[in-house]
Amino acid sequence: MNTAKKRIKRIAEDFYLVLILIFLYAPILTMMVLSFNNSKSRTQWGGFTLKWYGQMFESATIMDALGNTLLIAFVSALVATIIGTAASIAINNMKRVPRSIVMGITNIPMLNADIVTGISLMLAFIAFGISLGFKTILIAHITFNIPYVILSVMPKLKQTSKSTYEAAMDLGASPIYAFFKVVFPDILPGVLSGFLLAFTMSLDDFIITHFTKGAGINTLSTLIYSEVRRGIRPSMYSLSTVIFLVVLILLLITNFVPNKKKEEK
User: Fold this and answer.
1) Residue 30: CA atoms inside 13 Å, Cβ hemisphere, count?
2) Which candidate in 2, 35, 179, 258 could, as Cys together with 189 as Cys, close a disulfide (CB 3.0–4.6 Å)?
3) CA torsion sign, 226 to 231 to 232 to 234?
4) What is the C-alpha radius of gyration for the chain, rounded to an integer number of angstroms?
5) Is the dihedral of CA 105, 106, 107, 111 positive or negative?
6) What range(s) does the ABC transmembrane type-1 domain occupy (predicted)?
7) Which of 179, 9, 4, 14 is nearest to 90 (CA)?
8) Alpha carbon 62 to chain centroid distance?
């Protein structure tokens, strides 16, 4: 009797999991299939083709948006990683109560709704007389990426031993030399994870970018939104597929590379 109940429970759990995966990924798989459809129809298969991908790469508008997206994602992730790592070190050296307060404040942007963050940043730029454009998108992305870097680096800092750093100092090493030789190698997996996570978040962002971009500049997400409003073109399926695959690969790297290094140790 117990065996039958366990079997039924397992089947129900597996069915529930499969149902969730279908709801989550069936629309994405449909879009990916349509990106290879020779017909513009969304209900009729016209044969396999790569011409929509060719049109995507031939489009100057899409390539400009792709260049803006990659540049903003890389620069914002790099700057956020530097600032976030430095902030993590400072927070880690605080006493318990101030550290808890600062970490709570740091986590607010991650819990806050993107639309609230986007509108707040837009109003701040307008209040300070900063014209909306490339630089405002970059500043906005750096701002919302920093908490994710701190979240990735802090656990690694907590695992490091201060005694090794102090021992290096006692042996005559300068603070900077001791940090890069003793502390930095230990927190490097967290720093890399923070960079990749920040890059992914920037690459995938739409709402904050939409409110801070101004006129005359587009990223891939805002370009897709503006194109879809006029009518869905098959090249948009191709572009969306490429974005999904890039984000998926980055997330896999972010999750599996640190675990692999941990197992090797």
Assistant:
1) 10
2) 258
3) negative
4) 23
5) positive
6) 66-254
7) 179
8) 21
CA 241 to chain centre: 17
Tokens 């675990």 sit at which residue?
A: 259
Nearest to 63 by CA among 208, 242, 261, 205: 242
Give domain limits for the chain: 1-36, 60-256
Q: What is the pLDDT of residue 181?
A: 82
Q: Which of 252, 253, 228, 255 is nearest to 240 (CA)?
A: 228
Task: For residue 258, name the pLDDT band (cuts at 50, 70, 90).
Answer: low
CA 75 centroid distance within chain: 13
Residues 180, 88: Cα–Cα separation, whole Å: 15
Separation of alpha carbons 151 and 108, rounded Å: 12
Q: Give the burial class of 128: count Cβ atoms within 10 A of its Cβ; 0-12 exposed, 13-18 middle, 19 or more buried.
A: exposed
CA 124, 196, 122: angle at the middle one, nearest 5?
10
- Is-contact 110 204, C-beta < 8 A? no
Look at the block and give the residue holding tokens 């997330």: 251
- CATH fold of 60-256: MetI-like fold (1.10.3720)
Residue 212 pLDDT > 80: yes
- Token pair in block for residue 181: 């030789």
Q: Contact at 8 Å (CB) between 189 and 261?
A: yes
Q: Which two tokens stand for residue 125?
A: 């730029």
DSSP, res 161: -
